[in-house]
Amino acid sequence: MAKPKPKATASPASLFDEGIRALNVGVAEFALSPRTHGATVLQLDWRPPAGGDREMGLLLARLEDDPDDPIGSRVSAANAQGVERILSA
Fold it and tell me: N or C: which terminus of the chain has fewer CB atoms within 10 Å of its end residue's CB?
């Protein structure tokens, strides 16, 4: 015997009473369709670390993990600030 479905507390339409807000990371063209349909889209200009160069990216990751390295600590602080800005937007 099938279990009864729980009753929804809000209609699906009421979930978007304040409109749709989206975060688009990277390719700006991906935000065009949601904007066309009335969504508010925050664009984050993100690119892969080291221009996509895997070896350079691994070196940068090692720097970030080293709290005694002045560059690594700056990278870590900048990343933390970036995440905080995204979460508070």
Answer: N
List, as one string, the DSSP characters of 18-61.
T--EEEEES-GGGGHHHHHTT-EEEEE----GGGG-HHHHHHHH
Query: In the chain, what is the greatest distance between 2 CA atoms, to the nearest angstrom?
Result: 64
Q: How many CB atoms lie within 10 A of CB 24?
A: 19
Token pair listed for 9: 């507390």
In angstroms, rounded to a whole number, what is the distance separating the alpha carbons of residues 89 and 77? 18
Q: Which residue has the higher pLDDT, 17 or 67?
A: 17
Domain boundaries, the chain: 20-88
